[in-house]
Structure formats: structure tokens, C-alpha cells
Amino acid sequence: MRTDFTDYRFRASSLGTLMTGLGKPKLSATTQTELKKLHRQEVFGKRTDIRSKYLDKGIQCEELSITLYSEVKNQFTVNNKTRKENDFLSGECDNAQKIIREFKTSWDLSTFPMYDEEVKNKDYYWQCQAYMELWDLDEAELIYCLVNTPEGLIIRETYYMENKLGFADVGLPDELQKEIINNMTFDDIPKEFRVKVFKIPRDKEAMRQAETQIEMCRLYLNELSVLLAGELVTAL
């Protein structure tokens, strides 16, 4: 059970959720809500396992995405296994060969940012900023990859569609099954079109602001601990 958050180090992947209202003298309601979730998890050791088909594919296909990027860029890229931390953050980036590389595996063609010109997900932007800070590197690449969906996830998607469309007892018609497979595999698309790279420069000033925000977050977490202790005394 953790109740003192004075020197708590936030995960790089969660930094973006805390940056709403950055630069203001008071934490936003959104940030406070996220901190309450975090406080419950840390105090009671109970973590909500948020899983989705998108996350499952990302986890299962990380190596495939790195391989695809390596082939397209003609560059040997290895998956980083080192975790780093400083006074404010901790994290394990996907790759740190001269620059930070963070890989995101798209679920399908509709979620692949083929035509985007800038990073639209602020959480990923802050995640890359955190990794550049931890590894002291000045550039990052946020890399989206479109690779074939693992067979197990295709089977799960087929089962879902069978129930959704009323074919649970007889199975999907062949044409629908073929459509699912076609929409979840991408070998027919040239590799060069299945890698999208967004370059993100390091912003040291933004990180100094983030550190100030983290200090405020730590104070708020400690306030929640005091509140919780008071409620416990009252209950007894």
C-alpha cells in the first residue's frame, strides 16, 4: 500500500493524461479525475486491466511492426528492453538508436493515419517527449504500422460478427468470412504505404512545464491520501 507520493515517478505512457490545463495554477478537473484513478490503484494495488482488440493487436504485433519499419527504411532496428527513470518519470521506449522510435500498430486501414500530416493523439506526443527526456535525445519518431492481424484475433472478430449478425448457430457465409480476412490482412498493399512516420522534435520548455505539473499532481495525490486517512478514522 502506497500513501506517500512525494517522489512518485509517473509512467511516460501516462504523461499525456495529466497535461490538461498545463501552465495553469490549478489542476484541471480532467487531471484530478485521472489522479483519483491512479491513487486508488496505487493505494490498494488493484489495477483495472483495460484490454481491447486494438491493444491486443498492438502487443502481439510489436515485433512485426518493427520488422516492417526496418524493411521499408532499410535499417536494422532492435526492440529496446531497457527501462529508465529520472526524478519525475519512468519508461521503456520501443527503440533508442540515436533517436527515439515509438511504434503503434493500427488495427485496420481505417485506423491507419495514411493522410495525416501531424500527430493528432496528444498522449503519444507527450509519451515521445518523456522518452526523449529520459534518454536525452533530441528527436523522436512516432511510427504507425499496418501489419497482418494474428489468426487468433481474426477468429475472435469472426465470432463477434457471427453473434452480431445472427449467424451464431450456422456460422458466417463464406463471402462475409472472406471479407473479414481481407479487411484484417494487408499483404496486398505495398509495404511503403503501410508505414507512417511522424517526426517529433524535443521540447525542453514543455518538459519543464510538465515537471511543474507533476509536482502539483504529487501534492494532489498526497491530499487524497490525507482525505482517505480521515475517512478511515471516521469509519473506525
In short:
This protein is an alpha/beta fold.
Structural summary, described in words:
- The protein has 236 residues and is of the alpha/beta class.
- The protein has a single domain, classed as Lambda Exonuclease, Chain A.
- Helices cover 46% and strands 11% of the residues.
- The protein contains seven helices and six strands, in the order βαααβββαβααβα.
- The protein has helices at 29-44, 53-60, 62-73, 122-135, 151-165, 174-184, 204-235, and strands at 10-11, 84-85, 89-91, 100-105, 139-145, 195-201.
- The protein has a three-stranded mixed β-sheet, covered by helices on one side.
- A hairpin with a 3-residue loop joins β2 (84-85) and β3 (89-91).
- α1 (29-44) packs across α7 (204-235).
- The radius of gyration is 21 Å and the shape is globular.
- It starts with 9 loop residues before the first strand and ends with a helix.
Q: Count the strands?
A: 6
Portion of residues within helices: 40-55%
Question: What characteristic shape results from the CA principal axes?
Answer: globular
Q: Which percent range describes the beta-strand content? A: 5-15%
Q: What number of domains?
A: 1
N to C succession of SSEs = EHHHEEEHEHHEH
- Gross CATH architecture: Alpha-Beta Complex
CATH class: Alpha Beta
CATH fold title: Lambda Exonuclease, Chain A
Uncertain spans: none
- Sheet with most strands: 3 strands, mixed
Total number of helices? 7
Radius of gyration equals 21 Å
Distance between the termini: 19 Å
* Average pLDDT score: 94
